[in-house]
């Protein structure tokens, strides 16, 4: 790396005892070719953790005055300033925060202070989660939900202490709180280094590459498949799965294209809102109707698809086909069974129950915004709600500007910087807010008023 490049910084957070020091040791003892300066911050007694950090080659700096969150401006800036004097000695910085800290102010330092932001760039926030205790911690402390909300990567650590089912539930709860995070399960923080360092996580492009469905709305179903069927009777056969029933909507004449699938998805949303008709094994599946397949009996269950003329049948199901080993079978007069595979399938982001007050909102709109209106709206939003809005990220299309604008912020501070030219790409706006008690409808309406 050239000396003129900004130094990437990773913030390591996580509740008390979640495994931060374990991860830090792992990073410092692994061969990755980086020279890492570590900034540690102790709560109360100074220096205990330093004894646990191995490999003396890395430089360890300690913040002196108690809790990092209260002393960021002074202490962190001072330590970073001192570090810059030894710029030739390192090429990466790790800041470990105390388990009780809200990572917001630490992250903000890299936006707020001009001198700091000209030398350092925030690469990502990694939050360690203690799989065995996080449920209680989330209930009790604001800090732990803030640490989850801020994370670009959540390391779900101590997986040896909980069952797989519990981990699945936990993961879905955490995902509800922060839709843009990547969740990695770990034991003794044994994560590959490249999953926590050099993430460019403040870069929305990267997030979209990792999770293309990230900005998509949520649906009451997880899967759809399209089958090309000749006239005749077919069985939709399901094995035992994770749920004793499953909602389904079937359409005749379903197209294969993304556009046609989305159109049917919207139609399904409306049908799913209607009360489901119960179907038992052996019943025929109607079109354009919300049905609930009853699957509580042991063994496989079969429902009938009665096809009058050749058609492409679209099935939109509450769970994925895989979870029930769901198959469409053709049985001829000689009782020969033939499986008809789907021609195309699509997964959808399934909605979850929002039992935590921390959540994320995504806004995606084609077209241009009026920069002045957007500034006024954002300014007001962040000054009124900035305490509750932890992270903002996104791309904006300013009217009259050939380049797209990259937005990112922490609490009430944000930066808007011109990025690459739109070129032939359709001009659009993609914004994500993560925070507490956010009103999705109000924010979308507010944003829509800024569109031209
Ligand atoms: N069972 C189990 N224990 C773990 C795992 N990872 C870490 N530990 C243990 O958990 C304890 C706390 O780990 P640390 O790495 O010190 O956690 P920390 O987040 O730095 O803790 P504080 O500095 O107190 O906030 C230590 O005794 C670790 O050995 C794991 O995956 N499974």
UniProtKB/TrEMBL annotation:
GO terms for molecular function: hydrolase activity; nucleotide binding. Residues 358-451 form the CobW C-terminal domain. Gene3D superfamilies: CobW-like, C-terminal domain, P-loop containing nucleotide triphosphate hydrolases. Keywords: Chaperone, Hydrolase, Nucleotide-binding. SUPFAM superfamilies: Hypothetical protein YjiA, C-terminal domain, P-loop containing nucleoside triphosphate hydrolases. Pfam families: cobW, CobW_C. SMART domains: CobW_C. The keyword Signal does not apply. It catalyses: GTP + H2O = GDP + phosphate + H(+). One of its GO terms (cellular component) is cytoplasm. Belongs to the SIMIBI class G3E GTPase family. ZNG1 subfamily. This is Cobalamin synthesis protein/P47K. It comes from Prochlorococcus marinus subsp. pastoris (strain CCMP1986 / NIES-2087 / MED4).
